[in-house]
Each structure stands twice: as C-alpha cells, then as structure tokens.
Amino acid sequence: MCISHVAAMFFDRVSRVSSIPTLVLAIVLTFWSSVQAAAVGLLRDPDIEHGLTQLASPILNAAGLSPSRVRVLVVNDGGLNAFVIDGQAIFLNYGLILRTETPEMLQGVIAHEAAHIVNGHIARRMANLKSARGAAGLGLALSLLAAAAGAPEAAIGLGLGTQSAAQRSFLAHTRAEESSADQSAARFMVAAGVNPMGLLDTHRLFLGQESLSVGRQDPYMRSHPLTRDRIRAAEAFVSRYGDTTQEDPNAQYWLARVRGKLSAFTRAPGWTLRRLKSERYKDVRLMREAVAHHRNSKLQPALKAIDGAIALRPNDGYYYDLKGQILLENRKVDAAIAAYAKAAKLAPSEPLILGSYGRALLAGERYKEALAALERARARDFRDARILRDLSVAYARTGQPGMASVATAERYALQGRIKDAGLHARRAMGQLPRGSAGWRRAEDVYIAYEQAQKRRK
C-alpha cells in the first residue's frame, strides 16, 4: 500500500494520451502564485481499488457511468466522509469504509455520489468554479491538481487561504441536491439488484451529528446536510421499492477484503492479529495476518501467511503484489522481482502493479526491463508522480537523458514546481529530435510554463 498525497483529479480528459495536456498545465502554472488551498492524501493500493471497483461497477453501470472511467479512490482520513469533485472519481474516506457493515451500505454511498454526477450537481459547480476570476475560485481546483501528482509539499505550499471559503463552498450540497441524489441512488441500487435500504443504513450513521458543534461534526455532515425530515423522506421512497434483492456473495467477499486490508494497514498490528479468528474468508484472514507480521518486521511469518493466501487463490495478481511489497521492503530484491512479475502477468492492466514491478527492477539494476514496465504503467496513469520519478531514473540509466528530462519536467509540472518544470522541458527540447513524441511532450510543458510567465508579468 502506498500513501500518495492526492485529493482529486479535475482534468482527466485528454486528447492525446502520450502527453500531459497543455491546457491543464497552462491553468496550473498560470495561477500558481495566486491560489491557496490544502491537500488531502490518498491511500493507493491496487487490491483495494480493484475491490472497490467490484463493488461499484453494478451501481455505476445502472447509473449510466463507465466503471473504467469513474474510479473509486480512498482518502487517507479516518473520519466519515465521501465526495465527488468531477465526473472522474468518487472519493471515500477509509474511516467510512471501515464503518460500513454491509456491502449495501458502501454501495449506497457510491450510488449517492454517482447521483451527484449524473444529476449535474458537479457540472454546475464546476461551471461556477471555472467562471470565477479570483484566487478563491481557482485555489481549490489547482491545489487538488498539484496534490494529485503526489506533491504534498507543493499543495501545502499554496497556503490555506481558500480552505475555509472555496472548499466548503465547492464541496457543499444543498438539501434539494441531497434529496435528488437520494432518490436517484435508490433507483440505481434497485436497477443493479442491490437492496436500497443500505443507503438509509449509511445515513443513520450520521444521526446525532446535527447536535454537535461544527468542529466536532464529521466532514460528511458539513458537505451533505442531513436532517431527520430528509431521512424520513428517503425512508418513504426507499420503502416503495421493497426488498426483492438477494445477498451478493461477490460483494460480501470484496467488502471483507477491502476492509481487511485497510484495517491491517491503518490499525495496529496487534489489533489485527487479535481479530483474525473473526474473519469469514480464509484468504483474507491470511492476507491480514501477512500485513500484520510485515508491519512487525517478521518476514518469515509474513511470507508464510501470504503464501497461504496465494495457495487459495493462485491466479490472484493482487496477492502476488503484496508479496512483492513485503519482499522489496525487506530488501529481498530478486524474490520481489519474481513476485511482481507474476502479479503483472496476472493483472497486466494495473498501473500501480506495473509501477511497483518497474521499481523493483530498478532496485535490481535491470534498467531496460524496468523502463518497459514503467512506460506501460505511465501509459495507463500519467498522473502518478512516483511512476514519473522512477521513469526518469530508468531513462537516465539506459542512456536517454532527453527522455529523463521529459519525465522530470512532467513530474515537476504536475507538482506545481513551475521553474523546475520549464528548466527540464527546455533541456529536453534541446536534446531530443524536433517533432518527436518526447519533444512534443516537453513542448507541452514549456508552452504552459511560458504562458504562466506571461500571465505573472
């Protein structure tokens, strides 16, 4: 599991996959000196994100959204909250995931947030944001983009000026929007064959919040106003659907796995080990045990446990990914490479796994192989600053300084380091054949840098 300081991805839509869009960089670099906001961190883990996709897919399909385009990401926050910023991702605090007792509760949250996208609530607020001309209007968006690149120091460096104003304004929903989202969410759940009572069960987690001071309320309460009247209204239309659904074993399994891995990494190892017997699924129990032993620096028990999980699910690339992590963090580089290679073979489209495989190959000084894996990872997720960092090392180690400068320029641009981005982009353009793919990527960064410099004068 990797903690990456990310909050949201505003500008996911690109016309050329091989390049960071010039428009995005121009916006970021142009307003860099005038915006302020704070960052939120993400917990990035391919297994957890895959499990959330399994839970979200039927809901998103019922809502008319593509599960391959709308990702469900985990925010590194133990509080109860969920939100959307644009139509590309749904964000769930890990604290909320750990508090949901049934798959239907978590699917209810996902359905509710998907409804905000489908019903146009986000589009309206994005239009208002784009029309704003001051720092308060653009601060949140740009700091979130900087943080999305994995640059907490950049986002924090923007300051805190708009946190209390723009962030609350941007994330807050009206009660009318909430009621609309509830009704749509119930329809999506019924269409997906999911019991809509899960939506109400989640709402009831927040009862009593209104009597607390603002500082003690969960973030969800402040951005998703809940009242007993609204809950009663939701109860009325949910009850109309009745409960004709059956429990979904697949959803139950993936919720247990997501919660199991999250709790194993976010709670004390002793807490995890004491509760292993209560785990319903043997492979999940062994996975949790492996994580706990790994965090206690007990390599052999950790390997024994994860090998037990793999024996139960031999075609599960995500368990091989965890084995690779355990081995690499214990400096067993060759064994880690073998585990990651198996993971990448079983899950060839997972950028986080490909990035970890490339990182292990770099550690083993197998630079050409590392470059191939990292280029595949970048092709699937160009916003991951860790991949770009490792990619620049791989290019340098394989005698491609121009491409190393391209990757470094893109990483600095995503992190909001304007001058450094321009410097490396100019260096790359001087080293690469004019008009080549790498040269055009560097040009995108440099054009955005120049536009930012003109705006600042």
Q: How are the elements arranged and paired?
A:
Blueprint: E1 2-4, H1 22-30, E2 42-44, H2 46-62, E3 71-75, E4 82-84, E5 89-93, H3 94-99, H4 103-118, H5 121-131, H6 135-148, H7 152-157, H8 163-171, H9 175-191, H10 197-203, H11 219-223, H12 228-241, H13 249-266, H14 269-274, H15 282-295, H16 299-312, H17 317-329, H18 333-346, H19 351-363, H20 367-380, H21 385-397, H22 401-415, H23 418-431, H24 437-456
Parallel strand pairs: 3-5
Antiparallel strand pairs: 1-2, 2-3, 4-5
Helix pairs in contact: 1-24, 2-4, 2-9, 2-13, 4-9, 4-10, 6-8, 9-12, 13-15, 15-16, 16-17, 17-18, 17-19, 18-19, 19-20, 19-21, 20-21, 21-22, 22-23, 22-24, 23-24
Structural features, described:
By secondary structure, the chain is mainly alpha-helical. It contains 24 helices and five strands. It has helices spanning 22-30, 46-62, 94-99, 103-118, 121-131, 135-148, 152-157, 163-171, 175-191, 197-203, 219-223, 228-241, 249-266, 269-274, 282-295, 299-312, 317-329, 333-346, 351-363, 367-380, 385-397, 401-415, 418-431, 437-456, and strands at 2-4, 42-44, 71-75, 82-84, 89-93. The chain has a five-stranded mixed β-sheet. Helix 2 (46-62) crosses helix 4 (103-118). The longest helix has 20 residues, at 437-456.
Coarse structural class: mainly alpha
Mean pLDDT: 79
Number of strands: 5
Distance from N terminus to C terminus (CA atoms, Å) equals 43 Å
Number of continuous helical runs = 24
Please tell me the total number of domains.
2
Largest sheet: 5 strands, mixed
Large-scale geometry: globular
- Rg over CA atoms, rounded to whole Å, is 23 Å
